[in-house]
Amino acid sequence: MLRNGRRAERVGRATTSLRPRTLLLGLLVLVVFVLLAVLVGAGDLGWRRVLAEIVAQLTGGTSPLSEREAAIVWQLRVPRVLLAGLVGAALASAGAAFQGVFRNPLADPYLLGAAAGAGMAATIVVVAAPSTTDWVVGPLPIAAFAGAIGGVSLSWMLGRSAGGTGTATLLLAGVAVAAFLTAVQTFVQQLNTETIRQVYTWMLGGLNITGWKDVWLALPYVAAAAVVLCLCARLLDVLTLGDAEAASLGVRPGRVRLLLLTAASLATAAAVAVSGLIGFVGIVVPHMIRLLFGASYRVIIPLSLIGGAVFVIIADHIARTVMPGELPLGVVTAFAGAPFFVLVLRTSRQVRMP
Fold first, then answer.
1. Which of 66-80, 239-253, 261-275, 313-327 has the lowest mean pLDDT?
2. How confident is the model at residue 69 (pLDDT cuts 50, 70, 90)?
3. Low-confidence winner among 57-71, 108-122, 301-315, 340-354 (lowest mean pLDDT)
4. For residue range 279-313, what is the model confidence (pLDDT) as tens digits?
5. 100-117 in b/e burial notation, b at 16+ Cβ within 10 A?
6. Hey, which of 68, 148, 192, 322 would disulfide with 127, CB 3.0 to 4.6 Å?
């Protein structure tokens, strides 16, 4: 018991310290990229004029932009950049949590059926809902959110009914649920082939039709999930000692995993609801943080929130500026993430998961 306590103390001291300097530097980098993404966009407003507009709004001065140009900045660019940050933070922190819970360097935020559930629900809405709606928030993000939560809930219930909450059981349950929900989605699509293009556009991911309402839709869920994941990061470090040793230290592994998976799935569902399916963020960012700053989840999860936000902001900026026709955001993250995924796959035997 004493040996376990000393070992847990080493986990708590030697490898889990997030230096304030590192956190402040990460936040500064995030602010810089947010500002750059707002200053430069597809519309040629001139970064100096946009900067003067921001200064004018902060100081009460005179804006150099017309009313239409100011609307582009404050109603299109700013909410899109903020939403990109929220989506990236949600997916990266969820990926870090899934990798810790399943002790698998290839674990993904969509692992337990979140993507399949969201895709099925989105397809049903596209087929059944009218082309226009008077809802304050459109039915598609609400349905995608509910579908993602529903997919994860089905996986959890199936895993419990199959004999427990072990990681292997949950993983297999997630595979089974995802296969079934994907089959339902495909069946609905084949009944309404004229909607296939719209569904696939959503599944490729993107933020091209977002606004402030989407920011307010995602913000509370992402914030709540981020708080839970950060607070539970220390417990996730303790779980790296093994279930028996964690239990001897007063930690209940089953409950901790349930809490972490619930928070990570909530963050994933919120991201999917407003952006569609954006891959590789939850794999690339946590691994980069792990390589640069160590294996402690008290470091990985907070920095993954920041790093994920920066990653998706950069990817979305590329998607909307690299060519006249906007690229799907999921395509840009795939270009960046697929080679990294291959590298992780090739070296997964040498990757030491805590």
1. 239-253
2. confident
3. 340-354
4. 889 989 999 998 889 889 999 999 999 999 999 99
5. bbbebbbbbbbbbbbbbb
6. 192
Determine how many CB atoms are found less than 10 A away from the CB of residue 199. Answer: 21
Q: Please say whether the beta carbons of 141 and 206 come within 8 A.
A: no
Structure tokens of 153?
């809930």
Domains (ranges, CATH) in the chain? Answer: 81-347 (1.10.3470.10)
Q: Compute the half-sphere exposure of residue 36: CA atoms within 13 Å on the CB side of its CA.
A: 14
Q: How many other CB atoms sit within 10 Å of the CB of residue 89? A: 29
CA–CA distances in Å: residue 335 to residues 207, 209, 295: 17, 22, 26
Contact in structure between 14 and 41 (CB atoms under 8 Å): no
Give the separation between CA 300 and CA 339, rounded to whole angstroms. 22
| Cα–Cα dist 175/167, whole Å | 12
* Alpha-carbon span 327 to 323, nearest angstrom: 8
Q: Could you count the other beta carbons within 10 Å of the beta carbon of residue 281?
A: 32
State the amino acid at position 160 in one-letter form: R
328 DSSP 8-state letter: P
Match 């395509």 to its residue by tokens: 331
pTM of the entire predicted model: 0.86
Q: What are phi and psi of 238, to 5 degrees?
A: -65, -35
Distances (CA, A) of 321 to 43, 218, 309, 326: 9, 25, 18, 7
Q: What is the 3-state secondary structure (H, E, C) of 92-128?
A: HHHHHHHHHHHCCCCCCCCCCCHHHHHHHHHHHHHHH
Q: Tell me: the pLDDT tens digits for 80-103?
A: 999 999 999 999 999 999 988 888
Question: What are the two backbone dihedrals, phi and then psi, of residue 173, each rounded to the nearest 5 degrees?
Answer: -65, -40
Residue type, 101: V
Cβ neighbour number for residue 8 with a 10 Å cutoff: 21
Torsion, CA 176, CA 255, CA 153, CA 138, rounded to 10:
-130
